[in-house]
Amino acid sequence: MELGFVPELSGQVMVSVWHPGAPTTVKKSWAERIASPGGIRFAADEVLALDAYRCPDCGRVELFALRPPGSP
After folding, report:
1. In this predicted structure, what is the pLDDT of residue 56?
2. In sequence order, what DSSP letters do the residues of the chain get, joined into one string?
């Protein structure tokens, strides 16, 4: 298994993505954190779209990160 994270991209309805590695926080001043909370750096060209599969019998959901966003 490879370490990664799922960045929360709020404000729009989008397909969730997975990014390799540990998240790196963006250093902000106190005033910037109040105006715009959160903030991690990630490279958009490194993300993989998450596909979610649900078992109709038990309800278990598994996520797979196998393809770049926008590919079939």
Report:
1. 95
2. ---EE----TTS----EEEES--EEPP--HHHHHHS---EE--GGG-EEEEEEE-TTT--EEEEEEE-TT--
